[in-house]
Amino acid sequence: QQQVKQSPQSLIVQKGGISIINCAYENTAFDYFPWYQQFPGKGPALLIAIRPDVSEKKEGRFTISFNKSAKQFSLHIMDSQPGDSATYFCAASMSSGKLVFGQGTRLTINP
Amino acid sequence: EPEVTQTPSHQVTQMGQEVILRCVPISNHLYFYWYRQILGQKVEFLVSFYNNEISEKSEIFDDQFSVERPDGSNFTLKIRSTKLEDSAMYFCASKGGAGSGTQYFGPGTRLLVL
């Protein structure tokens, strides 16, 4: 119930394409869903986050789509660039504040 | 821009030795966390800390682990007797307010237990 399932494990996209990463959760007590970007040897950095009272949030080239009834959310990266190549983690938290992370997706953008 | 800092960046230790990992959270934050990431795996929650006491801990956080806020700025994770399986990246994070919300992560300490 505390798990967040993320797919795919790895993703290769051509420069300029759309990268899509999906996550699913079970626990309806989760009320905050961030996406983190991690470069090798670095800590996770917050990319974008959403709360379940909205179905979509967009910041620049990054969009979160949220489907509360299906308990799924996804990250869309538009016009993907080589600099977007990193590992992306979805996560979920509830009132306790602790983050439950997905397994991660290694994204490679081919030039 | 304020950031979470961690020291050391790398630590190599012998099995059975004690290690202390240090973190300086963002200065006005009140909620502190430790996570770990075994190489190639997901980030896992270890412990949360607020008002000088542990709020929540995972099953990973056994009696070998302890946390402390020895002064107004530092937040430490101590592993009393390290095991090989403690080898991982350890991340400190901090958050300003109560409930769910943005946590800011430090750059991590890579711990290698030999």
List keywords for this structure.
heterodimer, A: 111 residues, mainly beta, 6-stranded mixed beta sheet, 5-stranded antiparallel beta sheet, 11 strands, B: 114 residues, 4-stranded antiparallel beta sheet, globular
Write a concise synopsis of the structure shown:
With 111 residues, chain A is mainly beta. Chain A contains no helices and 11 strands. In chain A, strand 6 and strand 7 (62-67) form a beta hairpin.
Structure explained in plain terms:
The complex is a heterodimer of chains A (111) and B (114). Chain A is mostly beta strands and 111 residues long. Chain A is globular and about 40 Å long. In chain A, the strands form 2 sheets. In chain A, strands 2, 4, 5, 9, 10 and 11 form a 6-stranded mixed beta sheet that branches. A 5-stranded antiparallel beta sheet of chain A has the order 1-3-8-7-6, with no helix packed on it. With 114 residues, chain B is mainly β. In chain B, strands 2, 4, 5, 6, 9, 10 and 11 form a 7-stranded mixed beta sheet that branches. A 4-stranded antiparallel beta sheet of chain B has the order 1-3-8-7, with no helix packed on it. Chain B is globular and about 40 Å long. The termini of chain B are far apart. The chains are: A mainly beta (111), B mainly beta (114). At the A-B interface, strand 5, strand 9 and strand 10 of A face strand 4, strand 5, strand 9 and strand 10 of B.
